[in-house]
Every structure is written in structure tokens, then in C-alpha cells.
Amino acid sequence: MSETYLPKGLPRPSAGPDGLAEPYWRATRESKLVIQKCTGCGAWQWGPEWVCHQCHCMEIDWIEIEGKGLIYSYERPHHPVHHALTGHGAYLVVLVELPAYGNVRMLGNLLGDPHQEVVIGSAVQAVFEPHDEGDPAYTLVQWRIRST
Hints:
Blueprint: H1 22-29, E1 33-38, E2 44-45, E3 60-65, E4 68-75, E5 93-98, E6 104-109, E7 123-131, E8 138-145
């Protein structure tokens, strides 16, 4: 059994050429989940932007949140989207809605059997998957079904 859901050899996620997402990636290395919150209107948002989606304020903070959400949608790819995934088989990608944070949605993999039944609305918990072999090292946010 692999210690990570995805195989080694995938490229390190990028904070973008402007470094906008760097606070997010830095937080994941500390097993923390952060998203943006506007200091003007209080709206939550994801993905990262320089301006608030609601009020267009430029004052946006990164806030640590509880990594709990609900499966909004999913896909079960069977084809490799990167050569490191060749032979890895099917895997589950979920779109997770965070009701406590303005219903923002985040993507990630659903841990466990890639052929499991996925029920829309299922409660999930964020799981931090370190890739210490990366240069530099990085951590992915994955999701697992939360037991009630």
C-alpha cells in the first residue's frame, strides 16, 4: 500500500507566476487549510484572487478554516492526465462545498477505493498528504468520507 494516494513523480503544484496562492501552499505544509476572506464585506472565496468577488475590495486575508464539507460533485477519471499516473487506474476527484464558509468549493481526490459509490451530499474531511520527496516538498489536500 502506498503512503500517498497519488504516485510519486507528479509535478509540484504552482502558486502561480504572481505567487498569489503561496499562503495556501505554505499552510498545507503545516496541515492547515486556508481560504480567502474579504475584510470589506466578509465574503469567503476560493480560488485565490487579488480582489473580492463580491464587493471588489482589494483587502483580502487568508483565514484558517475547518476542513469539513459536503461532496457537491465528482468525477472518476480512468485515463492518466499526467505520465506519472500511467497504470494508476481510476481515481476519484471531488468538488467539495464548504457550507460554513460561504459555500465555496474546492477540488481534491476522494481517498479510498476508487470504485466506491459516491453519494452527492456526503460529509467529507480534509486530509493532508505530504510529498516530502518533491523539490521543494509540498502537501496536497485530499478528502475522505467523514463518519457521523
